[in-house]
Amino acid sequence: MTSGPRAADLRHIPLGIRLAGLTRAPRTIYEAVVRSFRRSLEVRIVAVTVLLSAIAMLGTGTYMTYTIGNGLYDARVEQVTEQSARATQLAQSTFDTTTASDDSALSLLQLSVIDRIGSVATNYSGIAFLRARGTQTNFALPDVVRGEADDYVSDDLRAKVTSGQADQYWQAVRVTGPGDTQRPGVVVGSAVQVPGAGLYELYLLYDLSEVQQTLTFVQGTIGVGGLALILLIGAVTWIVVQLVIAPIRIAAETSSKLAEGQLEERIPVRGEDVIATLAHSFNEMADGLQRQITELAALSRVQQRFVSDVSHELRTPLTTIRLAGDVLYDERDKFEPTTARTAELLHTQVERFESLLSDLLEISRYDAGAVELEREPVNPVRLAEDAIDGMQSLAERKGSELRLVAPGGYFEAELDARRIRRILRNLLANAIEHGEGNPIDVIVDSNETAVAIAVRDHGVGMNRVDAQRVFDRFWRADPSRKRTTGGTGLGLAISLEDAALHGGVLDVWSEPGQGSCFRLTLPRHPGTPVESSPVAFPSEEER
């Protein structure tokens, strides 16, 4: 009842949509097969084994079919040529011993010979007794043809038979059967000398369809047997692969759990074979890793606790020293020049010591994983302006001009403003320190997914090796270089941690003599992947 309306509705659907629906299923199946082949080791092994087995079976079957077919054909041809030879011998001996001298008697004898040939040449499907071309005698016997044998006798075969160079000749032909079917056949010809009538040709036609049937049966048997063998090989391979892959899959799952921190996971050990040895060795390795990781974790906690405790403990005497140093620093004008200079150095080093303690505490928090962000919607341009204002006096003392470049666009982002300002201060301090008094550019830009702030100086620059180590703790590219900003050696390391905490990236480009460019790229919203940085490095701009 509903087939009619559905058919009518289907006719109103555009042809392109219907064709797309028809082609989508094969494409989906193909994609599923390709996906399984790529992801499943069992599927690949079974597929390769079955494919190679099929190629081997195809080659073997082709060779066997060719060999058996040739053998059957050659045996059948040998059989029919022997029968034809006996038939020719019977006909010749009969004509040689006859006393008939007129054409009527020879005609009767001719029919008798043809009838008697069936006793020595069996299974022939046609016979032809033809007068040789060019024979001149007083009288001639009529041509006798049974089974349309003369239709398959070629001029070339007749020429060979009458030449007398061999006792008999044969030729492969195609015999037309019922329904115009084509079957293989053989025509065997030989010469017979009839007294008084001259030279005649005897042709026997044989149908070799039984040979073709036998070969077809053999091919079918080989094909079915080969297909069954291939399926059996595939099944056996699948079972063997499962026996081998199952422990490997367990090992992979156990390794994944170990990587996730489940250090107590182990592989079950069964038997005493190679897989069991592998599982035992894997478990021993896991035990060793667990011990080392546990020891390192304990050592790390002790180290973090030590740094934290020392930093806290040092704050009390440092505060006292700071108060005393401030008093001396405020009264330095009343001291002698040497004492005043000492008070200034004390004040500077106490400030640096206090900054170092703060950085050590911050690093210890990162190492302990106890840092949390306080995100809020902020404008990176405003953060860059604040950082530039804070470093303006230092830049003026070094003779560097701080320039803000902000093309405009999707600027607002959810960030921890305090930590971003700290990153920018560290980057600006390094740029001023190594900028050689040249202008320093602060570039701010953004796209739909990310914001980026780059600090570009035109100073001494770094080589590739130094650029790779610039974020290491307490590392300096040139230890002999005099510092004027009082850095602790932890600024870039903390900046890298702050960037990673935001889900962003802090990277660097630098060339000796061309300066350096530090680029901070952050997602505009938490959890949004950063596809590309809105700010390009100088080397990328050149492309």
The average pLDDT value, as a whole number, equals 82
Instruction: Estimate the strand proportion.
Output: 15-25%
Order of helices and strands: HHHHEEHEEEHHHEHEEHEEHHEEH
Low-confidence stretches: 1-11
What class would the helix/strand composition place it in? alpha+beta
> What is the CATH level 1 assignment of the largest domain?
Alpha Beta
Indicate how many domains the architecture comprises.
3
Total strands? 12
Report the CATH architecture of the largest domain.
2-Layer Sandwich
* Widest β-sheet, arrangement of strands: 2-1-5-4-3
**Rounded radius of gyration (Å):** 51 Å
What would you note in describing this structure?
This protein has 3 domains: 239 residues, PAS domain (Beta-Lactamase, 2-Layer Sandwich), CATH 3.30.450; 92 residues, Helix Hairpins; 169 residues, Heat Shock Protein 90, CATH 3.30.565.10. 58% of the residues lie in helices and 15% in strands. The protein has 13 helices and 12 strands. The strands form 3 sheets. A 5-stranded antiparallel sheet has the order 2-1-5-4-3, with helices on both faces. Strands 7-9-10-12-11 form a 5-stranded mixed sheet.
Question: Which structural traits does this protein have?
Answer:
58% helix; 3 domains; single chain; Beta-Lactamase; Helix Hairpins; disordered N terminus; five-stranded mixed beta sheet; five-stranded antiparallel beta sheet; alpha+beta; 543 residues
Task: Give the topology.
Elements: H1 3-11, H2 15-39, H3 41-97, H4 103-117, E1 124-131, E2 144-146, H5 155-163, E3 168-176, E4 182-194, E5 198-207, H6 209-259, H7 274-330, H8 337-368, E6 376-378, H9 380-398, E7 402-405, E8 413-415, H10 417-434, E9 440-446, E10 450-456, H11 464-469, H12 491-501, E11 505-511, E12 515-523, H13 538-542
Parallel strand pairs: 7-9
Antiparallel strand pairs: 1-2, 1-5, 3-4, 4-5, 6-8, 9-10, 10-12, 11-12
Helix pairs in contact: 2-3, 3-4, 3-6, 6-7, 7-8, 8-12, 9-10, 10-12
